[in-house]
Amino acid sequence: MENNGRNADVIVLGGGTGGCMAALAAAKMGMKVVMTEETDWLGGQLTSQAVPPDEHSWIESFGCTGTYRDFRNRVRQYYRDNYPLTAAAKQEERLNPGNGWVSRICHEPRVALQIIEDMLAPYISSGRITVLHGCVPEEAFTDQDAIQWVQVKHTASGEKERLTGAYFIDATECGDLLPLAGAEYVIGAEAGSETGEPHASEHADPLDVQAFTYVFALDYMESEDHTIDKPEQYDFWRQFIPGYSSYPLFSWFVQDGNKTDQVRRFGFLPDEGEQLPLWTYRRIIDKTLFEGIYESDISLINWPQNDYFLGSIIDVPPAERERHLYGAKQLSLSLIYWLQTEAPRPDGGAGYPGVRLRKDVLGTDDGLAKHPYIRESRRIKALYTITEHDVSVEQRGDQGTKRYEDSVGVGSYHLDLHHTTKTNRSFYIPTYPYEIPLGALLPVRIKNLLPACKNIGTTQITNGCYRLHPTEWNIGEVAGYLSAYAIINQVAPREVREKKDHLFAFQELIQQNGVEIHWPENIEL
């Protein structure tokens, strides 16, 4: 079934972190926007994928967009306004609701969802932004190097709807619009001979992609038994030893990402001994911060033990994709069962039956996140490709941060490559704080297509630092402003980069709207 479709100035495919910011920025500039989202939750990494924000050490002072800082402030204020914080927690200016050690602001996905919906609310209410939940792009038509329309499918009803607009922004988690539109793109490992990167693979392989993960939420009721039914694939996963390790995947021993001969030992709960506890890694509720309301902490489980790397879900046949998605779900459920029944305890016992799967935290029947956490997407072939030489401390030596004349944002994170599906490569390489060059957002050919998340012009290696929350937020926001600037000034996006007057005007526009485009000169690493 197909209806007559919709028209807008800007079509945003994907309502994740970058997509929401693209829609918001375009709407602020007066554009009409239609945004689609595969799930019933906007927000992507922060919400439907259940990943607390991975951030850099300067995030409280600089190094993100104004709207991202507003988001962080709103999260903290939401807890102050709505939760019974202790007196000490109320006075904590930099409140971290979960006191997780991955982020300075570990919080519940539903709170992130509420804040993002609040930020979009006036534009949705006024009709500038129309959100279509439960939609995936299915087909596109491109003529004379410009996308004419994209057809989306409503997954619940099967209804198809054609979307037309001046600009199409791909904010899907896997870069799904790129093949539909015939855009040039890369996926998986590039060969070192192509990129010149010292850590690139010897041979290119589009199926050698980073692991993805189904995140879940747990609390711990020590005196109770919440053991789930034994998952179908548990016997496989409990004895599985990855090719890169001498230890079972389900253990407290994790291979060091840079030194394959070294292993880190973790613990589970924070009061069990000297080992670093994984429980607090992505903890989103620290019960000690709240007055008598929580019986337990709540932690999101996105650990090395539930990274799925047995196969790719991108550019493979549908049956293979479904097999790997199911396998990833089974892996996460099996990890829960292992924690409940067999995980070694410091007292010599096995299993923590009080571990409880909190299905309500993520709003799903199976308790797993609504969408898998995707680390690697299809990436556009761009006018400028960011490589390891642009960001790595080892490669840049004492040159520091690479400054781009066409910078449209900033970020910072290690080159963090999780084990890949074919070669099982992984590493965690120090970087300098980096900038986001506009050229990496511009496809080599398609005129009215812009990327808004992990699909910009990076390599597989530099995707490892440009994929995190604040950077994706920045990329999406700039894509929204760029589409609006191009429409208002009747110029092509690549002209904004090529013509200095437009480049400087666009940079001034985004800076006025809170986007930082350069790092301070005297930043201390």
Binned strand content: 15-25%
Residue ranges: pLDDT <50 for 5 or more in a row?
none
Helix content: 25-40%
Q: What class would the helix/strand composition place it in?
A: alpha/beta
Q: What is the 3D shape?
A: globular
Main pleated-sheet profile: 7 strands, mixed
Number of helices: 15
Give the overall average pLDDT: 96
Distance between the termini: 57 Å
Record field, number of beta strands: 22
Structure description:
Strand 4 and strand 5 form a beta hairpin. Strands 1, 2, 3, 4, 5, 6 and 22 form a seven-stranded mixed beta sheet that branches. The protein has 15 helices and 22 strands. The protein is globular. It is α/β, with parallel strands linked by helices and 525 residues long.
What is the compact description of this entry?
This protein is of the alpha/beta class and 525 residues long. The chain contains 15 helices and 22 strands.
